[in-house]
Amino acid sequence: TPERSRPVMALPLGGSSTDDAELYQLASAELQRLQRQYRIMERDREAYQDEMRTCIAKQRKMIDMLTREKQELLLAARINKSEKQETKNASYKTRMEILLKQQDLIEAKIKSEQLQLRELDAQ
Length: 123
What we know:
By secondary structure, this protein is mainly alpha-helical. 0% of the residues are buried. It contains 1 helix and no strands. Helix content is 86%, strand content 0%. InterPro entries: ODA-DC/CCD.
């Protein structure tokens, strides 16, 4: 935990050598405190960077996984649509074959009736 910063004391003018020694000790103590606080903050910053790198790596993995899943779903949707279209096409084909057979039967019937009409007209 960061220590509270102490107010910087004003230097007295024209002090004795004991005052200078006390000031030097105070300045040294303040410097040590600030250096300790700096080291703590630096470790905290490094720990935060490591934590964020890990978090970002997890997020990237999740994005990659979701992107792959999206592509798979889009492909499945296209395949499903294609299969439905194929089923519809098969149904149309079957219906068309039935209609063509009916047309052939009707055309054959028409030809038969036209032949009968010609025979009747010829009599």
